[in-house]
Write a structure and sequence with these properties.
Shape: elongated
Number of domains: 2
CATH architecture of the largest domain: Sandwich
Number of strands: 28
Length: about 375
Amino acid sequence: MSRRVLPGLIVCLSIGTMAPGVIAELIAKDDFPGYAEEPNWVYYWNVGVGSTTFDANGPGIAHLNLDGPGVGGTYHNAELKNYNMTYRVPPYCDLEIRLRNSNNNGLDSPGGPNDPDPNYGIGSRGWGFWNDSMDPFSTPMNTIWFVSLSPQSSDQLQGSRLWVIRNNVPWVFQDLNTDLTEWHTYRIKWRADYLAAYIDDMANPIVEITQPSQIPSAGMNFTVWCDNYIMTGEFPDFDIGYLPMPAIQQYIDVDYVRIYTAEAVLTLDVVNGSWGTVQVEPNYPTYAEGADVVLTAEPVEGKSFLRWELRDPNHPDDGNYSTVDTNSVVRVAMMTDRSVTATFKCGSSMELLPFLVLSLAALAAGVWRGRVR
């Protein structure tokens, strides 16, 4: 009997490759499971009103807390820093951090910008990359960070924005247009010739820069902080002061931090067949090497899922490099090449039609094929 190929039954996903010779390295990773996992964090707190604590209950949280009252004219701060960035060559890397804030840093004050209520948050807070300069005329400032300054600061600087500054030249002061009190995942992709920043949605960057002359090239540290800074004047000719701390708790809760030197590049080309589909979670255009991707096989009505086959394409005929999984959900790590096939079958019967030949990728069955790097 000749083999037949039934139309519309193949479900495909093709996954692209990492740049040649680029291996992603995890520089910093912390899920704060009741303590700090990252050994190179540096903690700052001042005058007894700033602290960093860790929630031992799951999931773990790093709690950067400002708990007033605190006098004006004195710096009050809670901060985590990682100095690994400054000494890396090249410095380019990727950041992902998930966090929430206690408030919108005075931007939601009933008094508005002209009469901000200090009980709605004061000072500054932020997270991202920075070269530690607060004196731009002696050391030019470089930043790629999400930052929020309360209304007591100057019009140019106040608000919740992404700052991209290269050697004192601000290329981006982009409004975030998001509620800081909600949990969000913030991402930065930093390359010599490409910079992108994301909030939650990896498909649509809030900022994208392709001009190398506008992208910071100096070594920078990772930092996340909240403090009582006020910045007046125009950048970079600004003055710094310290606001009094109200007698309320102000904080940032950090769920996790990931910093990578590079990332795998993923391109998706999905064709959904009539026997089933495959859902990809998280469905990002890029993944850091080692990240987990969850694949879920979903048959259409009247069909059912049979099995996954994961095979090393470099050893196509060696069963030692192939695994079979009958669970409809499979987790794949973005570590090495793999061909991934999902097979669907007709109805609930465990028998395939007699003309289906699995060694030929079960062409008459609903098939999902993917190539994972």
